[in-house]
Structures are given as C-alpha cells and as structure tokens.
Design a protein that fits this description.
The protein has 9 helices and 10 strands. It is of the alpha/beta class.
Length: 279
C-alpha cells in the first residue's frame, strides 16, 4: 500500500490543490492528514472541504483545535490575537468548527511488522515543536505512548507535522519523520550569506510511506520512504480580496520560506542550547 501523508495546509488552497494533483499521479491508496488544515491563509473553508473529500484519516492540529474552540477568554488576548481568532472563525460554519474540534489526536497502524504512530506535534500535546536539534532523549520520548495515544506500545516509526520543515532521524532502531508543510513551508536555520535559492523551500511538502499495511510480520517487501516537493502558484494564492489580519505577514512568509517571528524561533533554539549566532 502507498500512503500519502500531508500536514499543515493552513488555508493555502493553491498548495493543497497542487499537492493533491501530484498525489493523484503517484497511485496512492490512502491519504492521511496530520492537521492544521485552517488558519493563516485565506482559504480555510475551501481547504477543509477538499481534505474531507480526499483524506481517509484526519488528525486534529493545534490550529484546528484553537480556532474551533468557542470558550476563549477574549479579555486575556492581545488585539491581534482577537482579530486572528474572529477572522478565522468567520470563515467557518459552526458545523465545521464542531467537526474540527472532534477530530482524533492520533492514529496508528502496523506496517511490515513496525508500529507506525502519527500525530500532529507530540504524543503528549499538539503544539510543542520537536526539531532535529532537540536532545536525543527528547526525541526518544516521541516514540513513547501517552494517555492520548491509541495503544500503550512504543512506536517503531513516528510521523508528525507542526514544525513545517521535513526531516528524518534514526535513534534506537526507531525512525522519526516529519513530513513538512503543504501550505506554509519555511526553514528555521537562515543566514543571508549562506542561504541557497529560496525556491528550495517555498514549495508544498508531503510524504509517501509504502509497505504492507496491517502486517504484523517483518515481510521481505520492506518499507520505503519518499519526501515529495511540489511547486505551486504563490502569487495566485495571495491574489484575492481578504481582510486577513495577517495578510502582509503571511505573504512575506510563504514568498520567503521564513517564519515571520524569527526572534521566537531563535529564542527556542537558545533554550535547546543551540548557538544561533553561529548559523
């Protein structure tokens, strides 16, 4: 079975359509979405409709949860946070928000004798970024079960989203995979003098997993991993009338493959003991 895994669409309709078109060419049997379908971009409702039509399994992301909740304490929010919440919720119906909030936290299955576990960010919370620079013991925790996982077994292969850039790591005979972002790809290690062409980053990313689905035995067919990068029309995506409070920031981000608040990114690196000044 060939399984396409997508994540972090963030309302980017052109990126999603290009990704689904590429998936159609690859003879895919199943599509799994790891969440964050909405928020940031201008086409949350359209993306939500497409994901519901095309995906077999859909996991809830932190943005799906946050913007579908109706019990926010608005008095504790900043003005921009309130505007973001109100605008994103204005794009969705009450039924859509209820559907988003009811999505599962995680999913898992056997593949050629390996337990594959999928979630949006971590097995314990949907909004903590785990990156390649994290300590090895932190990354090991990604394979451990929690009260939110389907089973209480340690995973052999973990696949997640949230951090918006793809990578693969091997530790303790286990495989940690991030599938990257369909609609809001960026690179967190940046340096004007060292950066390659930004077109290396400003693409729609997704992942293909292939193996004997449901098999509890280590079969001779094995498992294969494939990272896919798909070009899409960024300017067409941005060329629409919108009162998105993040319109300018969003345009800068997807054109440049860079998160708008790099100070926040660098502060997170410093907490990990990474010397960002040497980037």
């Amino acid at each position: 079975m060939r399984i396409a895994i997508i994540s972090d669409i963030h309302g980017n309709l052109e990126a999603l359509k290009a990704t689904l078109k590429d998936i159609e060419k690859r003879k895919i049997d199943k599509i799994i979405c790891l969440g964050d379908i909405i928020a940031k971009g201008n086409h949350s409702a359209e993306c939500l409709k497409l994901v519901k039509e095309k995906c077999d399994i859909i996991i809830r992301g932190n943005c799906d949860r946050h913007f579908s909740e109706t019990n926010h304490d608005m008095d504790k929010m900043s003005e921009i946070e309130r505007k973001r919440l109100e605008w994103n919720q204005s794009l969705l119906t009450q039924e859509q928000m209820k559907w988003l909030n009811a999505l599962p936290f995680s999913y898992e299955f056997m593949l050629n004798g390996s337990l594959v576990r999928l979630f949006h960010a971590t097995p314990w919370i949907d909004k903590e970024p785990i990156v390649n620079e994290n300590h090895i013991q932190t990354k090991y925790k990604m394979f451990l079960p929690t009260e939110k996982t389907i089973s209480q077994k340690k995973a052999d292969i973990v696949i997640y989203g949230h951090i918006h850039h793809p990578f693969l790591d091997k530790i303790y005979n286990r495989t940690l995979i991030n599938v990257g972002s369909v609609g809001f790809s960026f690179d967190v290690i940046r340096n004007k003098e060292k950066d390659a062409n930004v077109l290396e980053t400003t693409v729609a990313n997704y992942f293909i997993l292939e193996g004997d689905y449901g098999s509890k035995e280590y079969t001779e067919n094995g498992i294969s991993f494939e990272f896919r990068r798909v070009r899409y029309d960024i300017e067409k995506e941005l060329n629409c009338k919108t009162d998105n409070p993040e319109k300018n920031t969003y345009g800068y981000e997807i054109r440049n493959g860079m998160y708008g608040n790099m100070q926040k990114i660098n502060d997170n690196f410093r907490k990990l003991g990474v010397d960002v000044d040497k980037f």
